[in-house]
């Protein structure tokens, strides 16, 4: 075997291994991607139904759920995303109307366990219930939401994401009615 072919054989072998690995990843994702998406949608629906126990039907359009009970509109729900201390925080927000929060649920987060992860606790999340969108801010900033000691970045990420996304969605709602 010529010298240059002997030197290229490890490169060819590694290229083949990478191609096989990438192909297997693509095939695996094509099977698991829809399953993961379906589970996320079911989690959102379950949380919406917990927040709005009377919901009998909903429409989903432009990233906004419009919720109904017997054809009567009872609220809205949407996803908000905040940049926490350790990564993205995914939040489900429910609105009773175009002004009032019905509830907030953290769907996923990667905050520090025991510190920032306390954003998932009812004591923090229940502060949002019944609050006007205009009053959603940390109390240190003049709002009605008390931040978590030692987790200011996480608290602020949730508060800011909920408020900003709610304001955007209210503008969307008012633009379609």
Sheet with most strands: 5 strands, antiparallel
User: Globular, elongated, flat, extended or rod-shaped: what is the shape?
Assistant: elongated
Helix content: 40-55%
Low-confidence stretches: none
* End-to-end separation: 77 Å
C-alpha-based Rg, rounded? 23 Å
- Give the count of structural domains: 2
Blueprint (SSEs and pairs):
Layout (H helix, E strand, L loop, with lengths): L2 H49 L5 E5 L2 E6 L2 E12 L4 E8 L5 E8 L13 H4 L26 H25 L1
Antiparallel strand pairs: 1-2, 2-3, 3-4, 4-5
Structure characterization notes:
- This protein has 177 residues and is an alpha+beta fold.
- It has three helices and five strands, in the order αβββββαα.
- The chain has a five-stranded antiparallel beta sheet with strand order 1-2-3-4-5.
- The chain starts with a helix and ends with a helix.
Can I get a quick summary?
44% of the residues lie in helices and 22% in strands. It has 177 residues and is α+β, with helices and mostly antiparallel strands. The chain is elongated.
Features:
elongated; alpha+beta; 44% helix; five-stranded antiparallel sheet; 177 residues; 5 strands
